[in-house]
Design a protein that fits this description.
This protein is of the alpha+beta class and 327 residues long. It has one domain: Glutamine Phosphoribosylpyrophosphate, subunit 1, domain 1, CATH 3.60.20. Strands 4-3-2-6-5-1-11-12 form an eight-stranded mixed β-sheet. Strands 7-8-9-10 form a four-stranded antiparallel β-sheet. Helix 3 packs antiparallel against helix 4 and helix 9 crosses helix 10. The site of N-hydroxy-L-asparagine has 13 residues, from strand 8.
Length: 327
């Protein structure tokens, strides 16, 4: 006679719970072998010092979430990077409005858009994730929240940024979507427990229309993390990245079995399909980190895009130029 679960319960007996747990785990398990090695990747060569901070934290046993937050804070505070955080590029009206988002291995996320006067928008995004029931705050609401959480209101608009903006006003040589006008840091990390997190932060397109929001603070286009599959993030013309929900698309393509590089290339291809005549004007770069540690990337324009990798083999970081659509 077959013994049913009901019969066992009636007898005051239970099925071995370990067997039950194993089954549930198997149903949800990642299809990829969880890599034993920690890894950090981020967009552009200016990711090297940001990766270094993240790597230091990972080596000390920090979570990927702490690593990516602290990592991109390096870039946010760096006046040499004129497209992220402090000394970032102004909008058409001369205001510095910052966008950022963060996502962890549990699928939790936080985001800010159009945030002024705050040095570290990524930490405000994390505070929204951890201390509110919301995902995204924008503009004055985001600023009020940041101040209420103790973030100092600072002047992060530099004389240099104002001079660049005045220069642009005079010449208006650089159109708002030109490649030299934008560069975001997007960072992905895998920690010693094999958990993934990502962060993305930018001042957005230089001289953008006031109120314009790009892909970088948007969970889906600018950043996506699925702890069973992998993570992806983006840099480049946000409008084009939003149209294909780039980072989410890449993670879903990896779920279907595509390699990280091929998934990034497919996302670029979809942008080409939507912009058959203008894609050569679009700077785009995607990076992806799969659960098992495999990385991949792809760019749009003639080898312009590069990204930074830091791991046990490259503890000081290395800059990699991925293939691009136009070469
Ligand atoms: C945006 N994606 O605001 C950002 C800008 C950028 O490389 O990444 N530049 O559209």
């Amino acid at each position: 006679m077959k013994i049913s679960r009901r019969m066992l319960l009636a007898l005051g007996l239970t099925l071995p719970t370990s067997g039950l747990k194993t089954k549930i785990f198997e149903q949800n398990a990642s299809p990829f072998t969880v890599g034993s090695s920690m890894k950090v990747i981020s967009t552009w060569p200016f990711g090297i010092p940001a990766n270094a901070r993240a790597w230091q934290l990972l080596q000390n046993g920090s979570t990927a979430l702490d690593a990516v937050e602290q990592g991109v804070k390096v870039t946010e505070a760096d006046p040499e990077v004129t497209s992220v955080g402090y000394n970032g590029s102004l909008d058409r009206d001369g205001r510095l409005t910052l966008d950022a988002c963060i996502m962890d291995h549990r699928g939790m996320c936080g985001s800010v858009a159009g945030l002024e006067h705050i040095m570290h928008p990524i930490s405000v995004a994390r505070a929204i994730m951890e201390r509110t029931p919301h995902v995204m705050l924008v503009g004055s609401g985001a600023l009020d929240f940041a101040i209420s959480e103790g973030f100092p209101k600072e002047n992060i608009v530099t004389d240099d940024a104002i001079a660049r903006w005045r220069n642009w006003q005079k010449s208006q040589k650089a159109p708002p979507l030109s490649p030299e006008n934008h560069d975001t840091i997007g960072m992905l990390a895998i920690d010693s427990s094999g958990n993934l997190s990502g962060a993305c932060t930018t001042s957005g397109l230089s001289y953008k229309l006031p109120g314009r929001v790009g892909d970088s603070p948007l969970i889906g286009p600018g950043l996506y993390v699925d702890n069973e599959i992998g993570a992806a993030t983006a840099t480049g013309v946000g409008e084009a990245i939003i149209r294909v929900v780039g980072s989410f698309l890449i993670v879903e393509l990896m779920r279907q079995g595509m390699k990280p590089k091929d998934a990034c290339k497919e996302a670029v291809k979809r942008i080409v399909n939507i912009h058959p005549k203008t894609h050569s004007q679009l700077q785009i770069g995607f990076i992806a980190l799969r659960k098992d540690g495999e990385i991949g990337a792809f760019g749009m324009r003639n080898n312009e895009f590069s990204y930074s990798l830091t791991d046990a083999k490259n503890p000081n970081g290395t800059v990699i130029k991925p293939e691009s659509w136009l070469s």
